[in-house]
Amino acid sequence: MSGFDRRLITPLVAGAVLNPVNTTILSVALVPIGLALGEPPSAVAWLVTSLYVSTAIGQPVAGLLIDRYGPRRLFLPATALVGVAGALGTVAPNLAVLVVARVLLGLGTCAGYPAAMRLLRDEADRTGEDSPGGVLTILAVATQTTAVIGPPLGGVLIDLGGWRTTLAINVPLALAAFVLGWRHFPRDRAPRRPQRTRSFTLSGLNAPLLVTYFRAMLSSVVAYGFIYGFTQWLQAGRGFSAGESGLVLLPLFATAIVVAAVSGRSEALRAHLVLGSAGQVVVCLLMLTLTPASPLWLILLVTLVSGVPQGLVNLALQHAVYRQADPARVAGSTGMMRTFLYVGAIAVGAVQGVVFGDRVDTDGLRELTAVLLGASVVFLLVNVFDRSLSRPRE
């Protein structure tokens, strides 16, 4: 990281974390929102699905535009949209307006991560370093941290000011990211001309990259199913408050950060993915043992173990895309990976709507966990039998 412009690190992180924090912070607010607005869990679930759908559509588009026109031109207006969406959600009088706010949040946060990857690739080209691994690790740890700290942060905000604070927090976050991007992002050059190559398909797609996208989808089914399904069960099935549910997830937060920081020093991507997917299988098996009378130590063990795959898988997927993508299309390829992540999240969100229906209970959690277990087993098998990431870089 010696030749990398360190002034870019803070705005890179500030922009990239807007999406993961909005993905998870709402998990502890779903029950309070439903109670406040008189809506059942199946209706409140649209707050989750709406962000997933808008992000799944918006991220590859944002990535392709960033590759074409530069990160600054897309990052600044998108970040401003996050602030507008946060303000709208804060004053939303009903569920419909909240859904609109979440759609705008999804679109506004689309540019952060692809812009970060585009700037990393540009800096690698400028400095001659093949991969700024240290910066990739910082970025992964930051996004991992905010994704996992979302539920505890949401619980604290709800205890302090009610569920609307989980939307209002976007206003200062967006303002900070906008100012940092304005000050430190380099001015964009003239738009790049699209490159035509014989191997070009959607976002420079190639076979190894397609497998990585499939991995991302499978991993997100388990990760998002756990974050939302398990957290709702803690409140409605186990009787914890929003703040207590957030605190219960702290072991996940701590473990994921440590694992991501340690694993970031190595590029043994296949080993990380095999271990991470095996960890997801273990988490699902532990979840099947939960009941309303489960002791606190068992619940904490589940969250502690879940931090291991959370820390391993996300960083490995990020490195895989950086390695496998066409350098000229790294932002678009990153955006496409995020789309596959959200396709998995949308799928598991639909499953949650079916298994929970109008009431979150332990039977529904077990049905959800059975689906997560199936996805984690397939994810493990893909990683065991696909050896493309074990090959040296060409």
UniProtKB/TrEMBL annotation:
It is a multi-pass membrane protein. Keywords: Membrane, Transmembrane, Transmembrane helix, Transport. Gene3D superfamilies: MFS general substrate transporter like domains. Its main location: membrane. It holds the Pfam family MFS_1. One of its GO terms (cellular component) is plasma membrane. The keyword Transmembrane helix applies. Signal peptide: none annotated. The chain crosses the membrane at residues 12-37, 43-62, 74-93, 99-120, 132-150, 162-182, 203-227, 247-264, 271-290, 296-317, 338-356, 368-385. Residues 8-391 form the Major facilitator superfamily (MFS) profile domain. One of its GO terms (molecular function) is transmembrane transporter activity. PROSITE patterns: MFS (PS50850). The keyword Transmembrane applies. It is found in: Cell inner membrane. This is Predicted arabinose efflux permease, MFS family.
